Amino acid sequence: MIYQLNDDNCFFPPVDHANRDGLLAFGGDLTPQRLIMSYANGIFPWYNEDEPILWWSLDPRLVIRPGEMKVSKSLRHTLRSGKFELRIDTNFREVMTHCADTPREGQDGTWILDEMIEAYCHLHELGLAHSFECYLDGKLVGGLYGVSIGKVFFGESMFHTVTDASKVAFYHLHQFLKINGFKLIDCQQETSHLMSLGAYTMPRNEFINELKILTREASMVGNWGGKECEALFLHIEQPEKVTFRVYD
What we know:
Layout: E1 3-5, E2 23-27, H1 32-40, E3 44-45, E4 54-56, E5 61-64, H2 73-81, E6 85-88, H3 92-101, H4 114-125, E7 129-136, E8 139-149, E9 152-160, H5 165-179, E10 184-188, H6 192-196, E11 200-202, H7 204-214, H8 230-233, E12 243-244
Parallel strand pairs: 1-2, 6-12, 9-10
Antiparallel strand pairs: 2-4, 3-4, 5-10, 5-11, 6-7, 7-8, 8-9
């Protein structure tokens, strides 16, 4: 049974009512309140143009824990080279736009529609959604974005136009979350790319049980690229030569 939501409240049915593919409900809206409630309950929106909003809770769930990322020799070499400049929360909308425009194998279009971009940009303005960005010679060439609740980062999408740029962004997200006491990164669905970086599948019931604890911890709200974060970079344990630039 697939549930129909309305705009009157932020009710979601239990996730174990999702069908075999993980589809739980349709309808509703993309208000900050509903989005935060969905993520905190292990649910996320994913739909195509000319479809209603579709809400999913996959079983199993792909996750990675801060501190457990696999760094290949080639990626370590890239990190040591210092060729990329990392920025955080300086160009959230453009990261989302690039994620929407980047061709995906096996996909004809994008699920990151204009209304999704506006909804997540609103979350970003509220300090609940964040972007990690890689620049080469001042040009944005890779990055990722996601939602932060408690001690969980819910990854949404990433892109690159230069080899390893998205991996470098993910590496620094991983390090940032580790130093700030985050316990889990939600990667949603299984991909060979993410599994090569150390992600693994977790049964949905275990994932939900962790969310019940971790999302109730204090959230790190605000612009993560502000000067208040500058000192944190000095304590990240890393042998690589990395260029950081912190912006207001």
